[in-house]
Fold:
Amino acid sequence: MRPRERKIARQLEASLLTYDRDTCPLPGVRKSSFRASFVEQLVESIRRIKYVSVIGTRPLSKLRTDPSSDLFDPIRAAVLHKLQGNFDEAFWLVFLFVHFGKDLRTGWRLVRDIYGGLGGPLWDWTRASINSKELRKWLEENEATLRGGDGIKRRFGNHRKYETLKSSSDRAPGKVIESYVAWVHPPRTHQVLVQDSRDRVGSNPRRMFDHLYISMDKIVSFGRTARFDYLTMIGKTGLAPIEPASAYLQGANGPLDGARLLFGKDGAGAATLDPLVLQLEAHLGLNFGMQVLEDALCNWQKSPGKFRPFRG
Structure:
């Protein structure tokens, strides 16, 4: 842990102990090693999430937007496009980042080659949204190459490790992309999509997040994790003023297991645990709120007694 983060860690530990004593039992962190591990996961999550929010304050190379470059990075590219006023492209890159992800060994290679059209014309938002059926056909025609037929390894990121490039699958990438385009519903822009949500539920960031989260059930293969990841990244990059209304434990695996362990409620469901997590988040006063707590719970339950950083 970095020296400047030790003060934060001490504050978090004190808050957890106070909460356990005065508000709600937290048997999962009464053992000092479990508590230390959980606190360090919270600090790690704050650091990781905060990093995204400060990307736009630093100089960014234009090569970050170029899929033919090894410097390509969809999140940095999204921030650059946002700064240039290309909001639809920024949202689109966040979607591609979430669906294809970053593999620890092959990096951004999969999203690079799809976005970059394998060296052909870019599948940017303008082209993809107008020709989503053509993009689906292109993905089918290039399936063998994308699956490594050219000798280049490409893999989905950890959060999407059960996804597939098989065009015959119900979760084929072409079908996912077509459903995403239909959700945005061009010529409606992403900004208008967000405004429509605000018009329906008001400007409260959590209500807007929840409304968008529910509406995303129309997107093929975008379950709880993908929706949470997409919308939190939209918020972190400043593309929309939204933040999670809860930990969205319904349909979760790691975060739900973490909440069960923390609150000592083995077998409890999302309906029981979501309010408890929300109450704890308010007590801890975390920067970036529920994103931090959800992320920390997920990673902590993998190794509750000893801190282990997770980079997947």
Observations:
- The chain has a mean pLDDT of 95.
- The chain has two domains: 3-54+255-300, 61-236.
